[in-house]
Design a protein that fits this description.
By secondary structure, this protein is an alpha/beta fold. It has a domain of 236 residues: 3-Layer(aba) Sandwich (Rossmann fold), CATH 3.40.50.720. The chain has 10 helices and 16 strands. The longest helix is centred in the last third of the chain and has 27 residues.
């Protein structure tokens, strides 16, 4: 069992999640669906706000496009006093190329989503709000490891990156609403999230490499392959978020990251070994390699929550197996349809 602690002692849990009503925005997405499952497993009653229905049948679903301010306000008015917490996972995302090509749309959508979510939080009057920011907000190339008080990137760092800009705006909004909501807003800054259930259309490295390996396709590594990333299993992120909701204290910002970072080319090599593929590996130095995220200092997280992060290889094994199962299910379905 995960322990919550203060110094060397255990930290008092003020929010027993059993039978508590919790909203998860974007609960049909990769991270949001795992957060929802974690909360349900602890006995919480979860309501997902999203455009598409969630796959988890154990949650309630309110169809909502959070870019629509009037619709968000109607939902907020109907939910006043019913919910203990809100976890904000909804956002447009993608790989570095997608972010570059859709910078304006991502910026506008994510800022609208953030504004409407905080307005909804104010109407619902919850005890705690957890919003998911990004490791990318930290200044590229600064000294490592970075702590929560380190400065954000300069405008030059995030020009033509609507996603990064939107996350910085999200953090400033969180600081403002922290005052309006009585210091009940926690910002989490996760490193690169991976795990079962990730979708290829999200454009993240690990699912795309696994897909290429399992289908015998060439593996394209954007950049020179030497860039370092700290990969965080989505279940570890979900457990950390659940613990932060349970805590009596309400920290302003918390880095959430695995203890070690990895070289991209090494991660690819591990996936190649685990899948036994003969796929060709190709370096693509002309394609964007993404924001250079430094290593995280997670001492604040460690002072609050005491649990072991999953090591990367065991997490990759689980993720590869989940992709194999999905491929088998699709093949079986296609076989039935052909008959």
């Amino acid at each position: 069992m995960d322990r919550l602690r203060e110094g060397q002692g255990e930290l008092k849990i003020s929010h027993d999640l059993r039978s508590q009503n919790i909203i998860v925005t974007g609960g049909s997405g990769f991270v949001g669906s795992h957060v929802s499952e974690e909360l349900v497993s602890c006995g919480a009653d979860v309501t997902v706000l999203s455009r598409t229905p969630p796959s988890n049948s154990n949650v309630k679903h309110i169809p909502l496009d959070l870019r629509d301010a009037d619709a968000a306000r109607r939902v907020g008015n109907s939910c006043t006093g019913q919910f203990a917490a809100i976890v904000h996972c909804a956002a447009m995302d993608g790989n570095a190329k997608y972010k570059q090509e859709n910078a304006s749309e991502i910026l506008e959508s994510n800022v609208r989503i953030a504004l409407n979510t905080f307005a909804l939080c104010e109407l619902v009057k919850v005890s705690k709000v957890v919003v998911i920011s990004s490791a990318e907000v930290y200044r590229s190339g600064q000294n490592i490891p970075v702590v929560e008080a380190d400065p954000f990137g300069s405008p030059v760092d995030f020009q033509n990156n609507g996603y990064l800009t939107s996350k910085i705006i999200l953090e400033y909004l969180a600081a403002q609403y922290r005052i309006l909501l009585g210091n009940r807003v926690v910002v989490v800054r996760p490193s690169n999230v991976y795990g079962p259930g990730d979708k290829l259309e999200n454009g993240r490295l690990i699912p795309n490499v696994i897909h290429s390996c399992l289908n015998g396709l060439p593996i394209d590594i954007w950049g020179d392959g030497k860039q370092r990333r700290s990969f965080l299993h989505v279940d570890d992120l979900s457990r950390a978020i659940r613990c932060l909701i349970e805590l009596e204290v309400c920290p302003d910002e918390v880095n959430i990251s695995a203890a070690k970072d990895s070289v991209i080319s090494d991660v690819v090599a591990t996936i190649v070994r685990l899948t036994g593929t003969s796929s060709q590996i190709r370096l693509c130095p002309d394609l964007p390699s993404g924001h250079a995220v430094p290593k995280f200092d997670i001492s604040r997280l460690s002072s609050l929550i005491d649990f072991e992060f999953r090591d990367l290889e065991s997490g990759l094994i689980e993720t590869v197996e989940s992709f194999k199962s999905r491929m088998s299910a699709v093949s079986a379905t296609n076989g039935v349809l052909r008959k």
